[in-house]
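Hi support team,

I submitted a single chain yesterday and got back a structure, but I'm not sure I'm reading the token output correctly. Could someone confirm the output below corresponds to the sequence I sent? I've pasted both exactly as they appear in my results page.

Thanks,
R.
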Amino acid sequence: MRTGTTPRPPRRRRTLVLAFAAVAGLLSAGLVAGPALAARTAPAAPQSQSVAAASKSPAVAAAPATFTHPGVLVSRGQLDFVRAQVRAGAQPWKAAYDKMLASPYASLSRTPKPRSVVECGSYSNPNNGCTDEREDAIAAYTDALAWYIGQDHRYADKAVQLMDAWSAVITNHTNSNAPLQTGWAGSSWPRAAEIIRYTGAGWSSAGVTRFATMLRTVYLPKVINGSQSNGNWELSMMEAAVGISVFLEDRTSYDKAIAKFRGRVPAYIYLPSDGALPKAPPGGSIDTSAEIISYWQGQRTFTAGLTQETCRDFTHTGYGISAISHIAETTRIQGQDLYPEVGERLRQALGFQAKYQLGAAVPSSLCGGHLNLGLGPVTEVGFNALHNRLGIAMANTQQLTEQQRPAGSNNLFVAWETLTHADNAG
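Hi R., thanks for writing in. Yes, this is the structure output for that exact sequence:
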């Protein structure tokens, strides 16, 4: 078990090399071309060639024999990069850091509000601890970032206080939104815990053990079996399950969560290679043409990058896209890079939604000619992975990403991604 705090650059380089090698192998087989590659490495080609490659991704390995820590959404190398940029006053990281420190989530006077049972109905009504739990989890992650980047131990202490407070009290999530609430809060907690535990912040062994028990007994059982609801539910739940599995070093749960993720992504983002209709979600409860069309909000014309919730609203669509990018990023850090498998769908989804978020006219064939916009601060992680690391041209996504900087938080499970992932190749 590797629990040290020093990074392993050779492993990160090997991950990138393997990612490029996977793409190169598909190229030589004639399965990838055009927009799926960097403009500087290959000439443009028809989009259909790029789309066709997405359904022929190579198999990926199982959970790592040794987990990398910190390794949920951000690695030690990425954190070191951010700290160096902030100390140098470089942009956009310094502005992003200042925005984070000025937020209520970074307040050193914050008082945790744990409760034994968090009850969340539809749209958090009733809201018995739902907002408190999510925001305390985001605050713990915010404080963990502030600690590592600024090396001010007060923030480490505040993160520990928040995590210890909740792990001492919470026993369950109830009501109709319990799985989603557990997924949202359960996505933020492991990010905070990984940074605090593996960077010498001074978390007691008793505190770590109790927090791990909380994740194992209260959070993981509620998310690991997935959901037959809208795709953003299951994707957020799997993000929590993957992060928790990394913190617990639970290879069985990690593999189960990744298997569900790999089945859900193709059923959430449409590519023409899927056929006339989108893929049915795993589980078999939705499989006829009429059921699939209903599940896709009544949409009957399908275009690359359309998601199962595009015609519902961009806000929920953003939740799903964000969870996909977060899981892919964590798997990359853990040496099981899923970007070659999900990257084309992620690229198309980001570009499609960004185009209309930026103001493009909506055709009558798309959601009856009307879209409910509000994508949120969810593009940085996927854009950094696909554009900055792999060199893929993403004009609409780039414009929206840069326009929204420095990205803040969606107050659910997304936070400070300009700070952590802008131009970050770590």
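A quick pointer for reading it: The mean pLDDT is 88. Let us know if anything else looks off.

Best,
Support desk
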